[in-house]
Amino acid sequence: MKTYAPPSARRRRRLGAVAAAAALALTPVAAANAATIISLDHDVSGSTYIKSTNSTVRLGPGTLHTDLDIDTGDFTGSLTLPGTRTRFAALGLVPLEANIDFIPAGPVTGHINLAGENAEVSATAKFYVKLSNIKAIGLLPLWWFGGSTCRTVNPVSIPANTPPGEGFDLINGGRLTGTYTIGQFQNCGLLTPFVNLLVPGAGNTVTLQATNGRVS
User: What is the pTM of this model?
Assistant: First the structure.
């Protein structure tokens, strides 16, 4: 007779070597229903395409940290990405460049489905998008720009999901993609109306590659 394995048991088997290594560091819990958490770090790099400015911004290398409940597949964590510099054409006419930073505005939250043939991640990260040192290419910074305080009024919610037909490996990582909307900016000095005319909008895409998973 075939023995039925409950979902939690199937998930534990999918963790394999990760669970075995992490078990050495886990503190025994007194409550029978206490969660079993594994902390993982992945290296992350990729890019995001900003539709309104028709520009591609390089992301990373950064770090994705997650605290994974291996019984439920739920996790929380953080995604740290270094700032970068990008170029774009203002309304298709004036070539500009600016520093762009993604400032974390809360934890990364999500779920990894370990029960299927391919593990799948669905997650959401929230960032303030910050602009600084805007200048026309080859010229001095625009003196009427608001300095280092120019950022989105509200956090930008960015999904990071396993693409259909692909899988995510807790050690080898995998690809994560999503589409998001950038809202209005504030504190950009006299450039605030110009930035809000140029940058906000829907249809922006992100692609991240997580690699080198390790128990932390």
Answer: 0.81
Instruction: Dump pLDDT digits (tens) for 86-145.
Output: 887 766 666 778 889 999 999 999 999 987 777 899 999 999 999 988 777 655 555 445
Report residue 132 as tokens: 């600084």
Domains and CATH numbers, the chain: 7-26+36-215 (2.40.160)
Q: Quick one: what percent of the chain has pLDDT higher than 70?
A: 76
Nearest to 119 by CA among 66, 72, 166: 166
Nearest 5°: CA angle at 11, between 8 and 15? Answer: 140
Reference 82, options 100, 55, 107, 96; nearest CA is: 100
Structure tokens at 126: 């929230």
